[in-house]
Design goal:
Order of helices and strands: EEHEHHHHEEEEEEEEEEHEH
Strand order of the largest sheet: 11-10-7-8-9-6-12
Structural class: alpha+beta
Number of helices: 7
Radius of gyration: 26 Å
């Protein structure tokens, strides 16, 4: 229904040797801010796991073809990225995106803001060539930091600026990557580690709350949309 309302245009893939008449999907029309922000015109809804824009449109409007209105009303251009994934697709995406879904993505403070993490990391007497202020990199997962205190050749304190470090990871001395150490134990001193999976899951959950234009206003909004397209 959505693209049926769009005007046509001429398009060629071979420098005009052949020309085709196609739907001009670049002619993007938006709903007015007043329609999208006036509280009395819409209800809020949390998209259930597995629900598609078509299912939501059918649930509220008894017409799945009005899925475009659900997307437009929420400024969703590409539902592949802006619509919440179902559980299976979320798990698949996270597994494809990260080497270790349980590795640390970042650290947060008590208010949920990004912050540096601080931790003790232990190894089997392999910090001999590591010193205070040395930058370190996680060679197993994503992690960058620097040494703030050296207690012994098997125990250093670090500040983590990106990602994280956990037991089983290997770290490198950034200035000389031949200097390596395998982490045997980690003690978090400050900052709450957020795993890659938790980060992606929370990001996905943040997309669930959408606005649903009340059914009483559908005809007026659809007619206005068609006028803007020049029908």
């Amino acid at each position: 229904m959505y693209f049926k309302s769009f005007p046509y245009t001429f398009y060629s893939l071979d420098d005009a040797s052949t020309v085709q008449v196609v739907t001009n999907i670049t002619n993007r029309v938006t709903l007015s801010d007043e329609v999208k922000t006036t509280f009395s015109l819409y209800d809020e809804y949390d998209v259930k796991d597995g629900e598609t824009p078509e299912l939501v449109a059918n649930k509220f409007y008894n017409n799945s073809e009005l899925h475009w209105l659900v997307l437009h009303y929420n400024d969703i251009i590409d539902p592949r990225f802006d619509w919440p994934l179902d559980t299976n697709n979320l798990n698949r995406q996270v597994a494809e995106r990260y080497t270790d879904v349980n590795a640390t993505h970042h650290f947060e403070d008590a208010n949920g803001n990004y912050t540096n993490g601080n931790a003790y990391i232990l190894s089997s007497n392999t910090f001999t060539n590591f010193n205070v202020n040395d930058a370190i990199t996680n060679n197993t997962n994503n992690g960058v930091g620097y040494i703030t205190q050296k207690n012994s050749n098997s125990n250093v304190r670090i500040t983590i600026t990106t990602g994280g470090f956990k037991t089983g990871d290997q770290i490198l001395k950034s200035s000389n990557t031949t200097n390596r150490a395998n982490i045997t134990s980690t003690v978090i001193l400050s900052g709450t580690p957020v795993t890659n999976f938790t980060y992606e899951d929370e990001l996905n959950e943040s997309k669930r709350r959408i606005k649903i234009l009340k059914a009483a206003y559908i005809d007026a909004v659809v007619n206005d949309f068609k006028k803007k397209l020049g029908e």
